[in-house]
Design goal:
By secondary structure, this protein is of the alpha/beta class. Helix content is about 35%, strand content about 20%. The chain is built from 13 helices and 16 strands. It has helices at about 55-70, 90-105, 115-120, 125-130, 145, 170-185, 195-210, 230-240, 250-265, 280-285, 305-315, 325-345, 355-360, and strands at about 5-10, 20-25, 40-45, 80-85, 110, 135, 160-165, 190-195, 215-220, 245-250, 270, 290-295, 365-370, 370-375, 385-390, 400-405. The strands form 4 sheets. Strands 9-8-10-11-12-15-16 form a 7-stranded mixed beta sheet, sandwiched between helices. Strands 4-3-5-6-7 form a 5-stranded parallel beta sheet. A two-stranded antiparallel ribbon has the order 1-2. Helix 7 (about 195-210) links the parallel strand 8 (about 190-195) and strand 9 (about 215-220). It starts with 5 loop residues before the first strand and ends with a strand.
Length: about 400
């Protein structure tokens, strides 16, 4: 970092403690690592502690693997990449603080993350003002790219610096409704959400499409995502004759909600989105068999393009890559590709105005990634709208049931 005597407060994952790390006191000419190499830092933000840390750690490992691979293969001549991970604890306020830390480090030319759409809302404007590229592998809130008017067709890009390798809640919610109505033959549902940006948006998209298809929403409720006692709402569901429950939210609350639904006598499946479709969900839920989930992309295990990534990940990390591993690798690699373009267009040298040039290069990024072809449309959204429906099988594992490149209705 070029700001002298700065102190960065970082979260140390292994201890959960906060440690002050002195940064930024090096001289400008120390950017050269002996042989004229320049260091480019890629920031990373996700929950590395707390209830959602399983997802965040899988994301961090995948981003780190991309950086290690780029350095090993000398993907950008003269450039050494370094990952700087920060823990946002799934809290918007912490995410906003992390954004300022990345912005204050002149070596940071791009940031991967976060996991939560609500956290992203606290980061987007600061990054935009600083011309600092952000690529999320997990944010699905449609309004993050297309604005609040997207439902009425009034789509407006909100922030020039925001991109994502995950598709939107509009796509995911509609796909889930279509799968449940047409494939699972379920006609009556009870809709519940956790009132957060991600969960509420996902549930709204599902509800509108399910009704349009001819389905009936027999009831709707909101829960507190920090609660774990859902007996009251489970009792309501049981009395409404629902054939399934659709839940907009994440696995820490989804697991006890599903279990308590079944224990109440409502022996019906719970369906949710990518925030629920975690390996942790069936571990936390004794009644998970038969539950349904959707996630962006095809399962990486089914993609030839992901074979090397899976092999290297399993060789280097003991933690599960979870739902967003492949998408995080691709998000990180998109920044690496943008740096490569910026360097090539500057006679093989890192431009002095690196953030601006990397941001300009993002519109030119297109490559064959772990999850398929990676590129972005005029809103910063991924052009890959492949979706997959999953079900928890008798072995208490998520099993893919159906995939398609879904186009919004």
């Amino acid at each position: 970092m070029r700001n002298r005597s700065a102190l960065i407060l970082t979260t140390v994952l292994t201890t959960g403690a906060l440690t002050l790390t002195a940064c930024g006191s090096r001289d400008k000419d120390k950017d050269d690592n002996g042989g004229g190499e320049k260091t480019v830092v890629i920031g990373f933000d996700a929950p590395l502690t707390g209830d959602l840390s399983a997802l965040g750690i899988g994301m961090r490992n995948s981003a780190e693997l991309a950086v290690k691979t780029a350095n090993k293969e000398n993907t950008v001549d003269g450039i050494k990449f370094k990952l700087e991970p920060l823990d946002d604890q799934a809290q918007p306020s912490v995410g906003g603080q992390n954004a300022q830390k990345f912005i204050s480090n002149d070596d940071v030319l791009g940031v991967v993350g976060p996991l939560n759409s609500s956290v992203s809302q606290s980061m987007q404007k600061p990054f935009n003002d600083a011309n600092l590229t952000q690529v999320s592998p997990a944010n699905t809130g449609t309004e993050l790219t297309q604005g609040d008017g997207w439902k009425t067709g009034d789509k407006k890009r909100q922030f020039k610096t925001f991109f994502r390798t995950a598709t939107t809640d509009q796509v995911q919610g509609q796909f889930a409704a279509q799968y449940l109505f047409q494939k699972a033959k379920i006609k009556k549902v009870y809709v519940i959400d956790d009132q957060k940006t991600y969960g509420a948006g996902l549930a709204a998209s599902f509800k509108d499409t399910f009704i349009d298809l001819g389905g009936k929403v027999v009831g709707q409720d909101h829960i507190n995502p920090d609660d774990r006692d859902f007996k009251s709402v489970a009792s309501k569901v049981k009395g409404r004759g629902a054939q399934a429950v659709y839940y907009g939210g994440e696995y820490p609350a989804a697991a006890p909600l599903s279990q308590q639904l079944k224990e109440s006598g409502a022996k019906i499946p719970l369906m949710g989105g990518d925030g629920m479709k975690s390996e942790e969900f069936p571990k936390l839920n004794k009644k998970a068999i038969g539950d349904l989930g959707t996630s962006v992309g095809k399962p990486v295990e089914e993609l030839d393009s992901a074979k090397k990534f899976i092999e290297e990940y399993n060789k280097n990390y003991k933690e599960n890559m979870e739902t967003y591993g492949g998408g995080t690798y691709d998000a990180t690699w998109s920044i690496i590709e943008a740096v490569k373009i910026a360097v090539q267009e500057n006679d093989g040298k890192l431009p002095d105005n690196g953030r601006e040039k990397v941001l300009e290069a993002m519109s030119k990024v297109k490559f064959d990634g772990v999850t398929g072809t990676v590129s972005f449309d005029k809103y910063g959204d991924t052009t890959n709208t492949m979706m997959t429906a999953y079900q928890v099988n008798k072995s208490n594992k998520w099993e893919s049931k159906f995939s398609e490149a879904y186009k919004p209705r």
